[in-house]
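FW: tagging you since you asked about this chain on Friday. Here's the raw sequence from the shared folder, copied in full. Didn't touch anything.
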Amino acid sequence: MDEILVSMKGIDKSFPGVRALDHCQFELRAGEVHALVGENGAGKSTLMKVLSGIYAKDAGQILFKGEEVEILNPRAAQNLGISIIHQELNLMPHLTLAQNIFIGREPRRNMKFLLDEAALNQQTAELFASMHLKLDPKTRASNLTIAKQQMVEIAKALSFNSEVLIMDEPTAALTETEIEDLFTFIRKLRAEGVGIIYISHRLEELKQISDRVTVMRDGHYINTVQTAEAPTDQIISMMVGRTIYEASPELPENPSKEVVLEVKNLNRGKVLQDINFHLKKGEILGFAGLMGAGRTEVARAIFGADPVDSGEIYVQGEQVEISTPQQAVWNGIGYLSEDRKRYGLALGLEVKENVAMAALGKFLGVLGWVNKSLIRSTAKHYIDDLAIKTPSAEQKVKNLSGGNQQKVVIGKWLTADTDILIFDEPTRGIDVGAKSEIYKLLNDLAKQGKSIIMISSELPEVLRMSHRVVVMCEGRITGELPIAEATQEKIMTLATARKAIVNDITASPAAA
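HL: got it, structure written out here
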């Protein structure tokens, strides 16, 4: 189909101190998947928030099916048939699927103040059937996996008879099987004439699912190309304005034999069972496994964020008691959560305050006064050192892009001078250019003698960044591989093992 559903021309949008969009353009046809890519801070999400009525444009023109429209709020966008599915899903966990989908639009009985639950569930069941989803409308949202929650979000969008569907990082939290299921459904929508705008940092997905790619950089429109005709390195070059070498960076030299962290017999119900491993000075220890394997739970237990039933933790050979995050910090352990917005940042505070918050004692004078100039200079140091894109140290963190928010979290733990750093999905939702910077940062930290645990769902990332790889499945460590012997196939074999196994896969030199 060649009908142009959406045409955006000359779109401008500014925030205090930041020009987010500068004369941007975008076009979407019926029955196409149009990928929108760019580094963090490029303006992708801002442009889509203008289209979906979350932000009002400062200047420019939006045409919907050839007619100029003013989209002043999300309801106006939905009435046109434009829906957005955000990266952070917005379902209310305590409500049923039917209640989530039709909230604010529930069918009523003859007495208008009474909801018609039967009709609500029937409408939802019909919607699910049209999508070939085997879900019970009466199921609570909290009982679904992330992948199924995402399908419910799509169902909610389609319940508005949407002709334009905006998907922001839809595969960020999905397994490979779930991604393929999602792609199958996207292709079905495309065949039915729905126009889909697909925002993703995973460039390898674009060839599989998109028809065209539009690239943005620093708030500007760069170009639109046919996916089939554009090599990945060409798209990357347009995104970053420079060459990014995808080759593996050099790992720091082999770490010393000094063990800085040792975990023995860590247990927490069925979530963690008999966890044993060690971490050396200057080492990057990769943690791999499928979603739900227990990797994040290990990190949270070591950091004192979750209680454990039993187990011992040793730092620099001394057994330590860690039952709170504060005790973990006292013992030189920092944790960068996979959910940086919820656990890593105070979004309403400024960059400089976030950088200082894990080490406030450093900034107190003799009488307990806060040394604001020292906080500001420290923040400025890490803004420069980590290349954080912000107009100033006084910018509120909520106004930064995801990649720059992640860099602020890193700056926070570097300010606290922690020697053991746990990075949980450090590059999730981060573009290729920022990934390269974070990889370099991890290597630099290891060269400085910092010890790093890196949890990642991306096997190429684990393989390029680790000295050793620990693999988990269903709350257990099922194997450990030295990087020289690690392959994606071996890791996946261990990641799907239902109990700890010892064979040729887990070569003995890994424990050396």
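FW: The radius of gyration is 24 Å.
HL: agreed, and Residues 181 and 357 are 42 Å apart (CA to CA).
FW: great, closing this out.
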